[in-house]
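Handout, section B. The chain below has 253 residues.
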Amino acid sequence: MSDESKTFSGRAAIVTGATRGIGRAIALELARRGASVAFNYAQSADAAETLKGELEALGARAVASQCDVASTDAAAEMVKQTMSDFGRIDFLVNNAGIIRDNLILRMKESDWDAVIDTNLKGAWNFSRAALRHMLRQEGGGSVLNIASISGVVGMAGQSNYSASKAGMIGLTKALAKEVASRNVSVNALALGLVATEMSQSLDEGYRQKLLEQIPMKRFAEPSEVARIACFMLSDDARYITGQVIQADGGLAM
């Protein structure tokens, strides 16, 4: 990518859950555009080191932190360290997410708790910590929550996941109203099926049924989701806030 395309030069980002799939693609796209990138990992130290090397190969400053997003203290510490490393936080992408699908009568309480804690509380933890800095710094900032159409229309067998993603959408709208006057935007991407390890882990019959319902008849590629995310974070989208952008190939029309 040419220097002219490095539109995020001098900017710094945090991307949660970035060692694979959508988060990884977003982290790489941010780096291609010149941003410094901090990201967390839970257990995959090798994957984190690989991504860090790829980001640095693109000319970006990169920091990997082992962090459980469900821990308020751990999230605050990672944000503090990012400020120490980069001096500012322009972009926060709350991407970390897990699935523990099952019908509600078969779902364990621990599966409910794990999904809510990672997907929803994790987004709250990082938003709370990062916004303290975005609201004070010159230029404000942008928060992007990676939600799902499961949070828009609900999906059978995903009561925990649908609730977590619907919660992220509510969080998006509430935060957008709180911080808009301070030049901070908060938006959400409600994604459909994306060609990642997570989507491949879905029951095959269920996955094929969903694919048949997608008017575009394909999954999204992580790279195209990353480009949409970077647009939502960019200066071109600064007058957009509190919005839920559905990037789902028409699945939830």
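Note. The first strand starts at residue 12 and ends at 15. Compare this with the example in section A.
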